Amino acid sequence: MTAARPRDDPKPARFPFSFEVYPPRNADLVASVHETIHQLAAAQPDFIAVTYGAGGSSRDQSLELVRYIAEHTTVPPMAHLTCVGSSAEEANRLVREFLDAGIRQFLAIRGDAPEGARDGEDYLGDLRSATELVQLIHRVQLEREPYTEVDEPQWGGTAVRLSQRREPVRIGVAAFPNGHPQSRNRAQDIDVLLAKQAQGANLAITQLFFDADDYVNFVTDARAAGVEFPITPGIMPVTSLARLKRIVELTDEPMPAELAGQLEEAFAQEKAARDAGGVPEITQYSVGVAHAVALGRAVLEGGAPGIHLYAFNQHRPVLDVLRGLGAIDE
Ligand code: FAD
After folding, report:
1. Distance separating alpha carbons of residues 297 and 291, to the nearest angstrom
2. What's the CA gap between 232 and 222, in Å, rounded?
3. Ligand 1 midpoint to CA 109 (Å)
4. Which of 230, 240, 176 is nearest to 208 (CA)?
5. Which of 180, 235, 250, 308 to mutate to test the pocket of ligand 1 (most atoms within 8 A of CB)?
6. What average pLDDT does range 296-304 have in this prediction?
7. Which residues line ligand 1 (CB under 6 A)?
8. Which residues of 275-305 are buried (b: 16+ CB within 10 A; e: fewer)?
9. Which of the listed residues 57, 83, 109, 193 should we mutate to test ligand 1's pocket, taking the one with most ligand atoms within 8 A of CB?
10. Cβ neighbours of residue 173 under 8 Å, at least 6 residues apart?
11. pLDDT tens per residue across span 180-237
12. What is the pLDDT of residues 104-130, one digit of tens each?
């Protein structure tokens, strides 16, 4: 899969990577999302994560896409679950439903207020934080599968013995290198991660960020405070100025001035080339991919255990980022 590279090539060797997609919002989009899944799966990621409830998608749409990945590719899906709107009983049933579908990788997040929610409206259910959801997933898995059956060879035949070992569940959680918008300070962000770790989370994926130092400094502080699980940087190739503005608005991240300037310049060049019937020297697409490649290289050099790519349901930009990093063939 990975091409051999000369020794002096600065590109890192193959590293673990994963993708994130969101479920199709209507039946017309199902086929194109499935095509994206197959293109992504061909790159052999560690997992493909499917968002839950984000942007108005429903539980059924998430579960269907997670099932599709499990049944039609060789890549394990990771199901996002949130605390939004469920009673304890419903949350319990939901987790069980995903576990019964064979899902063993989760991202436990609190979730944000649904679009249209009134200011101050309590949109959460009985579970109040991602930490409680981590605890619930482990509890439900323990209740539904307190033991596994293991064949034990015996004289005169094979007997079945009961073992206490359960199938492991991987539970990821969100981390915020530049602070969660509701956090008072860095210490609180790290305390929340420690609480998630104590409840059995074994991986964190970060909110997107635009400067490698933000990630590296956050991980340094988290390690000093006792966070031990891998903290995987979440990276998105931002291939248009319009998308950058939307992302900054949604995530509350500070506007990355340099990237914004480059995208603006490319936007102007594209317009001028269109008007003159020519070809622009740089495009917003090439700027976005080049920025994500440089960011990916810097975080890997800074010790990142891999990269999680926000695909925005498009395979080309994230695969181009991986090509730029030398993780998949040209
Ligand atoms: P929590 O860890 O519960 O905490 C959020 C903040 O609340 C903390 O930073 C802290 O400030 C405060 N807090 C938490 N616990 C306590 C406590 N005990 N005492 C005091 N303060 C506390 N949203 C979706 O709706 N669907 C998705 O699929 C989705 N996927 C995401 C994937 C990633 C990788 C990331 C980074 C985010 C995702 N989100 C998704 C967004 C996420 O739901 C929001 O960012 C949400 O506001 C916070 O979620 P959390 O899991 O970090 O919450």
Report:
1. 10
2. 13
3. 5
4. 176
5. 180
6. 98
7. 51-54, 80, 82, 107, 109-112, 129-130, 174, 180, 182-183, 188-189, 192, 205, 207, 234
8. eeeeebebbbbebbbbbbbebbbbbbeeebe
9. 109
10. 107, 108, 109, 130, 134, 193, 196, 201, 203, 204, 205
11. 998 999 999 999 999 999 999 999 999 999 999 999 999 999 999 999 999 999 999 9
12. 999 999 988 777 666 666 677 788 899
Cα(154) to ligand 1 centroid in Å equals 50
Threshold 0.70, pTM exceeds: yes
Nearest CA to ligand 1 atom 41: 111
C-alpha distances out from residue 64 to 27, 68, 296, Å: 12, 6, 31
CATH class for the region spanning 17-237+304-324: alpha beta
Q: Where are the alpha helices (DSSP H) in the chain?
A: 30-41, 59-72, 88-100, 130-144, 186-198, 212-225, 241-251, 257-276, 284-301, 315-324
Q: Is the dihedral of CA 62, 68, 71, 73 positive or negative?
A: negative
Sequence-distant (6+) residues with CB within 8 A of 245 are none
Per-residue pLDDT tens over the stretch 4-47: 444 455 554 689 999 999 999 888 999 999 999 999 999 999 99
Encoded tokens for 62: 């998430």
For ligand 1, the distance from its centroid to the CA atom of residue 198, given in whole angstroms, is: 17
